[in-house]
Amino acid sequence: MGIATEECKLGKVDGVLVYARRNQAGEAAVLDAIDLDHSKIQSIAEALANRGYGVMRQTKVRAGKVRYLFQAQWAGDGPPPEDPLAGLRSGMTTPDTSKG
Fold first, then answer.
1. Domains of the chain by residue range
2. 33-47 tens-digit pLDDT
3. In which element (H, E) is residue 38 found?
4. Whole-angstrom Cα distance, residue 83 to residue 94?
5. What is the pLDDT at residue 25?
6. CATH-assigned architecture of domain 6-74
C-alpha cells in the first residue's frame, strides 16, 4: 500500500463529516473525523473497526471545548472497501471525490 496522499470529504454520518486520505491507488486508506458528540464518533469508529479498519480514538480540548476524534487505517485483508461508509452515510449520498 502506498502513502496516503490525497485528502477528500468522504461523506457525512449522523451529521459528522468524515474525511479520507487516499493512497496512490485512489483507495480510502485512512479516514478521520472530529465532533463534539462522543456517541457519534464512537458509533462511526466501531462500525469502521467492524469492517477491518484499525481505529484510534482521542479526546482533544480546543478553545475550551472537548472534541472527540478518530483516525482509522485500513488493516484488513486485501484493498480497503470502495465505500467504507456504505450503509452509514447520511447527508451526502455519494462520495465527494473533490479535494478539501
1. 6-74
2. 999 999 999 999 999
3. helix 38-50
4. 9
5. 86
6. 2-Layer Sandwich (3.30)
Whole-number Cα distances in Å, 29 to 14, 58, 65, 67: 21, 19, 29, 23
Positive/negative CA dihedral, 61, 57, 24, 16: negative
Phi, psi of 39 (to 5 degrees): -65, -35
Nearest 5°: the CA angle 51, 53, 29 is 115
Cβ atoms 73, 29 nearer than 8 A: yes
Strand, coil or helix: 39:
helix
Rounded to 5 degrees, φ, ψ at 8 are: -150, 160
Residues 68, 42 contacting (CB under 8 angstroms) = yes
Q: Residue 69, SS3?
A: strand
